[in-house]
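Forum: Protein Structure Q&A
Topic: Joint prediction for protein chains with partners

I've read a bunch of threads here and the consensus seems to be that you should model interacting components together rather than docking separate models afterwards. I'd like to see that in practice. Below is the full input, 382 residues plus whatever partners are listed. Could one of the regulars post the assembled result?
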Amino acid sequence: MGSLLPKVILHEHIEGSVTPEMALLLAKKHNVSLPDDFLYPEGSYDKNEFPNGRYQYDETDFGEFVTAYDVVADLVRDADDYYLIMKDYLSRNAAQGMIYCEMITSAFHLCSQEDEQGKVTLNAAQYHDFMEGIERAIREVKAEYGTETRLQACGVRHLSLEHLNLSVDFIAQNPRDSIAGFNIAGNERAGEFADFIYVHELVDNIPLPKSYHAGEIRGPESIREAIQFGAKRIGHGIAAIKDDALIEQLIQDGITLEVAPTSNRILVTEFGQKLDHHPLRRLYEKGIRLSINTDDAGLFGTDVAKEYRIAEQVFGFSRVELLDVTLCGLEAAFVEDEVKQALIAQVYQCFSEEDWHELEMHAAALPDGALKSRLQNRLHHK
Ligand SMILES: [Zn+2]
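Posted by a regular:
Agreed with the consensus. Here's the joint model:
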């Protein structure tokens, strides 16, 4: 593959990034005993595939995945824990060439409290304390690897509309410089985007750009609605492949899909745990802008290098196509323009003579369309 390919992650949930090794460390620290069948025993799985251990849950059972996720999220309890898990994820992926990363945070995971009447509130002092831990890891990884990281705040749609509104109020009242975008995550079947008008409008007023999870387990209409309410990026969005008019709209509006192959293989039932029918390649060839992501890297036993390798080996992406994917990720990043332009320039500098030649040949051979024109425009950066 030549020199280390620069990579971008736009979609990773902070608590989902916890590896089995890190979970064991946190359990020990907090004196928590984990369920017996929490991890696969050493020697029962391929250590090359899962260098940081492997969680044991039935990949065909979404409920088991959610249970494992909750056990892991519950181990992350203080500012130092957040520092540790961020440092771990960012530094391992930065060493694999990740030059830019966006992590999704949730105020509900960070600082929710329930009183005796069951009323939920968010604790601002705890939030800021934990965010300091997260931001310390971001600064250290930037100093060591040069990797830039920004955060998204996120509302969890299945917690109830009241909770969703509460988290957005909280985010508006507790701004932090590291928060560069807003996300709606959680079970896609809970509610409709049209139910969340208060959220869409408040986020526009903060203002924060939006990336919404859609078209992962629901159909194309969920992506249309996310765009209608202002999402500039779509978490997953793979259902777009079922709707040609929507594909055209995504291209016209310059919407970027944050695709996560391993996550989709495991969580999207219709793929039957295989990547054979995953539309990554087809979406790309239609000319849709997309980036490749880890989603819940710790839970799925993946990392940025593994996802790019899957794109290469399973979906046949060439080196220049992966460079294009990295550039699409940066062009859609929720980061200040100055930083964005510097990162984009850094990627263009990674193109060798051979890469430029390859890109030119490849673009020339493509049929007219969005992909061809995007790649031909990239040639002007030589
Ligand atoms: Zn996600």
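The pocket of zinc ion is lined by residues 11, 13, 185, 213, 235, 295 (CB under 6 Å).
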